[in-house]
Amino acid sequence: MKDEDIRLVNVERVDDLPVLFATLRRIGIAEFLDQLFPLHHNWKAELSFGQVVEGWLVYILSQSDHRLNKVQAWVEEHLSLYEVNFGCAVRGLDFSDDRLADILERVADYQKWNEFEAKLNRRTIRVYDLSVERIRLDSTTTYSYKAVSEGGLLLLRF
Q1: I need a labelling partner for 139 at 20 to 30 A (CA). Which of 17, 80, 104, 131 fits?
Q2: What's the pTM value of the predicted model, to 2 decimals?
């Protein structure tokens, strides 16, 4: 067998990660954060501030865990997927607990955070004019073994 015939195949279980990356990118999390929180001169990484937050949110949403000290090791297990989604080299150190703590300090700026929320809300929240004369609500039918008052309220006694 020749060396040219040998191929290394890396199988990685991706689960919900591509969907989370695509959703966060569509919402514009990284874009808005990069506009409002420009990189500090000490920031040494291929990823921008917003991209690190986006990658961190993928971890939080996928693992249902907000602890800082678990992110780096988890990202290192999914480096190839992170690199494909960001289109550049990704290091586990980009998601170290120290870097994430620095991010928390930076987004604690009340004025900039309000600007971020306003931009995000303009992109994600839609308001419709539903001016109508009458609205009909059909409530779900429920059953209870408790007493009901004359006004139709359920009487609970403890």
Answers
A1: 131
A2: 0.73
E-assigned strand segments in 2-139: none
Domain positions in the chain:
3-124
Q: Which residues contact 79 (CB under 8 A, 6 or more apart)?
A: 90, 92
The residue behind tokens 């999914």 is 78
Residues 6 or more apart whose Cβ sits within 8 Å of residue 121: none
Pair of tokens at residue 136: 């009909």
Q: Compute the average pLDDT of residues 22-50.
A: 88
Please give the average per-residue pLDDT across 46-73, as a whole number.
93
The upper half-sphere exposure of residue 151, i.e. CA atoms within 13 Å in the direction of its Cβ, equals: 3
Kindly provide the b/e burial profile for residues 126-139, where b requires at least 16 CB atoms within 10 angstroms of the residue's own CB. Answer: eeeeeeeeeeeeee
Record the tokens describing residue 50, joined without a space: 């917003």
The CA-atom distances, in angstroms, between 82 and each of 46, 114, 120 are: 12, 29, 23
Higher pLDDT, 78 or 8: 78
Characterize 53-64 residue by residue with b for buried, 16 or more Cβ atoms within 10 angstroms of its Cβ, and e for exposed: bbbbbbbeeeee
